[in-house]
């Protein structure tokens, strides 16, 4: 048990359903852009690549790809893809705390035998994938006859299970690659959106680490991620950001108005000069 461990939470990179909005794509893969986003992580997380002691991933294909590309250096150091822990409990839990869990194809994983038949994914240790992990029933349930509150209780229980699992691991530096919706549940931050391939580090709250809830406390951003076709628009600016932006716009408008005032004043001077010149010429000509 390592209650003082650092948990590096990572959202997967852009997947096909993110880019197209097509939720019917079964167990969606990363797009080319998503592969590039994930492949940038080693250079953005150089220190983490050297200290990570275990890589844990949701077993959906996009998270496994993101883990493989994003933590390539750490994986090689730790002994290869077979050392990645494929944790079915970390699969997605769609929606905010007021919506239901999602059982659409893009958010439903592949059976173990299906993954083992695909060369890219057969290199992972898939031993934790039980036959029911893709069922969306029981522990992974999306029973739509339940109330929203019952759904939330079920999903929150799974998130709590994962926090307890992380707490009981002996490593001090733990990477978890998962889904934005599940990461919100895990961190109990329902309004916190995650960019593609974003990495944040958390620790267990010292005063509550030994409780069943064992909540996580935010420490810092490690990699900001990419908001292109991510799960939400750019974050709303803070009040200070908005005020600074407004102040800048006011200054620009003031400068523009000052410039226009100078132009008008110059035109007035030229008009007055022209009128004086006209009067002088008329005076010189005299009466006919």
Could you walk me through the main structural features you see in this protein, from its secondary elements to its overall organization?
With 288 residues, the chain is α/β, with parallel strands linked by helices. Helices cover 43% and strands 11% of the residues. The protein contains 11 helices and 6 strands. The protein has a 6-stranded mixed β-sheet with strand order 3-2-4-1-5-6. The longest helix is centred in the C-terminal third of the chain and has 47 residues, at 239-285. The protein is elongated. The N and C termini lie far apart (113 Å). GO terms for molecular function: phosphatase activity. It holds the Pfam family His_Phos_1.
Summarize the structure.
The protein is of the alpha/beta class. The protein is about 45% helix and about 10% strand.
Helix vs. strand class: alpha/beta
Query: Helix-strand pattern, N to C?
Result: EHHHHEHHEHHHEHEEH
Unreliable stretches? 95-101, 233-238
Strands, count: 6
Approximate strand percentage = 5-15%
Give the overall shape: elongated
CA-based gyration radius:
29 Å
**Portion of residues within helices:** 40-55%
Strand order of the largest sheet: 3-2-4-1-5-6
Mind summarizing the main beta sheet? 6 strands, mixed
Number of DSSP helical runs:
11
The averaged pLDDT comes out at 84
Instruction: Determine the N-to-C terminus distance.
Output: 113 Å
């Amino acid at each position: 048990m390592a209650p003082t461990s650092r948990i590096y939470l990572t959202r997967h990179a852009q997947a096909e359903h993110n880019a197209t909005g097509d939720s019917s794509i079964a167990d969606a893969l990363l797009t080319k852009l998503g592969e590039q986003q994930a492949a940038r992580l080693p250079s953005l997380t150089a220190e983490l690549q050297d200290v990570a002691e275990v890589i844990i991933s949701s077993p959906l294909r996009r998270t496994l790809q993101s883990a493989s590309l994003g933590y390539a250096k750490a994986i090689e150091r730790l002994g290869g893809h077979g050392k990645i822990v494929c944790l079915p409990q970390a699969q997605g839990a769609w929606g905010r705390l007021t919506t239901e869990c999602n059982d659409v194809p893009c958010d439903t994983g592949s059976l173990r035998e299906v993954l083992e038949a695909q060369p890219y994914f057969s290199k992972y240790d898939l031993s934790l994938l039980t036959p029911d992990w893709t069922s969306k029933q029981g522990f992974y349930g999306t029973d739509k006859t339940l109330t929203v509150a019952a759904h939330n209780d079920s999903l929150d229980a799974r998130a709590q299970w994962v926090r307890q699992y992380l707490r009981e691991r002996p490593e001090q530096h733990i990477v978890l690659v998962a889904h934005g919706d599940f990461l919100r549940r895990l961190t109990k931050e329902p309004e916190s959106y995650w960019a593609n391939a974003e990495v944040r580090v958390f620790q267990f709250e010292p005063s509550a680490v030994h409780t069943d809830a064992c909540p996580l406390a935010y420490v810092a951003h490690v990699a900001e991620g990419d908001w292109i076709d991510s799960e939400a628009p750019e974050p709303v600016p803070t009040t200070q950001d908005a005020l600074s932006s407004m102040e800048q716009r006011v200054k620009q408008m003031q400068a523009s108005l000052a410039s226009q005032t100078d132009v008008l004043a110059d035109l007035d001077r030229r008009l007055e000069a022209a009128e004086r010149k006209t009067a002088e010429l008329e005076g010189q000509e005299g009466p006919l």
